[in-house]
Amino acid sequence: MTATRVLVLNSGSSSVKYQLLDMREGDRLASGLVERIGEQTSRLKHTPLATGGGTRERTGPIADHDAALKAVAEELARDGLGLDSPELAAIGHRVVHGGKLFTEPTFVDDTVLAEIERLIPVAPLHNPANLTGIRTARALRPDLPQVAVFDTAFHTTMPEAAARYAIDVETADAHRVRRYGFHGTSHAYVSRATAKLLGKAPEEVNVIVLHLGNGASASAVERGRCVDTSMGLTPLEGLVMGTRSGDIDPAVIFHLARVGEMSIDEIDTLLNKKSGLIGLCGDNDMREIRRRIDEGDVRAKLAFDIYIHRLKKYIGAYYAVLGRVDAVAFTAGVGENAAEVRAAAVAGLETLGLAVDGGLNAVRGDEPRLVSPADARVAVAVVPTDEELEIATQTYALVVQTN
Question: Can you list the residues of the chain whose pLDDT is less than 70?
Answer without folding.
Answer: 1
